[in-house]
């Protein structure tokens, strides 16, 4: 049998793949970026406050009587001039008629006496003499009684002094008797509300009338208002002062007695661009940020005008609003390093 020799390279192809050159692999770090904007840097005093209406009045009866008609319903919206309550005024109408009759009799007696004294000395026509004549004739008292009777009729007819919403502790029915002094309702104007904000004594010198106040609602939305007053007193127990801020409240989102988180804008700093505070790093006792150019980053030395926990306000010609700035996973970056870009969510 012939001898068969297998020579290398003459059999099946080798399945071993060549190892890649590690120097040729492009390994890039993934870096989180955000965009610089043009907003100023704002400084706030964070605080809490309690809401209260600008206009609020308690509706009370000055006289006793029987209810003829009532619009007093809890939560009822009323316009200025709306009739809220009418008391039966038949008795007061009779009192007014009697007072008017007495007044006319007294007026006639006064006029007769006035004519009889017409030819008297000039001194008899002084204001004091005329007043004494009204007293003696009964005209002075008759006029008082007549005006009082008119007031009683007016007191039994209660109208809303301004637009508002009623808070009514008890609904009244026609024919029901109510006594003088009874509190019938409270009218609250919800279109404008003010908030009393507590400010620690160390920050009181930073607040001023006219400063902007931002309320932070439960759904994280904001309401803007202005400081209208600053209390001159500091509570010795809490070491806080109070400021009052006014807010337009057309949708009635603010109700009296609510506790609200707020912040008072005390000052702002404006530069060429604002970047997240996390973008600013320190290298060799200098501050810098990494700015994206294509797929690589350049470090840019900066001198922030101001910084807080969230933002840094820059005044640097190399950083402009809209520039893409590294804000995370950038601590070990080097100048001109190529990166994989991921934008901040």
Write a short abstract of this structure.
This protein has 345 residues and is an alpha+beta fold.
Give structural notes:
By secondary structure, this protein is α+β, with helices and mostly antiparallel strands. The chain is built from three helices and 21 strands. It has helices spanning 90-116, 127-137, 139-155, and strands spanning 30-35, 41-60, 65-70, 77-78, 83-87, 157-159, 164-167, 177-178, 183-200, 212-216, 222-235, 240-248, 259-269, 273-276, 281-283, 286-293, 296-301, 306-307, 311-314, 324-328, 340-343. It has a six-stranded antiparallel barrel with strand order 2-9-12-11-10-13. A four-stranded antiparallel sheet has the order 6-5-3-8. Residues 1-14 have low confidence and may be disordered.
Relevant terms:
single chain; 345 residues; alpha+beta; conserved putative lor/sdh protein from methanococcus maripaludis s2 fold; OB fold (Dihydrolipoamide Acetyltransferase, E2P); six-stranded antiparallel beta barrel; four-stranded antiparallel sheet; elongated
Order of SSEs:
EEEEEHHHEEEEEEEEEEEEEEEE
What is the straight-line distance between the termini? 78 Å
Please give the order of strands in the largest beta sheet. 2-9-12-11-10-13
Largest sheet: 6 strands, antiparallel, barrel
**Per CATH, what is the topology of the largest domain?**
Elongation Factor Tu (Ef-tu), domain 3
Continuous helix count: 3
| Helix/strand/pairing category | alpha+beta
Strand element count: 21
Arithmetic mean of pLDDT: 89
CATH superfamily of the largest domain: Efflux pump adaptor protein, beta barrel domain
The value of Rg in angstroms is 42 Å
Low-confidence segments: 1-14
Proportion of β residues? 35-45%
Query: How many domain modules?
Result: 4
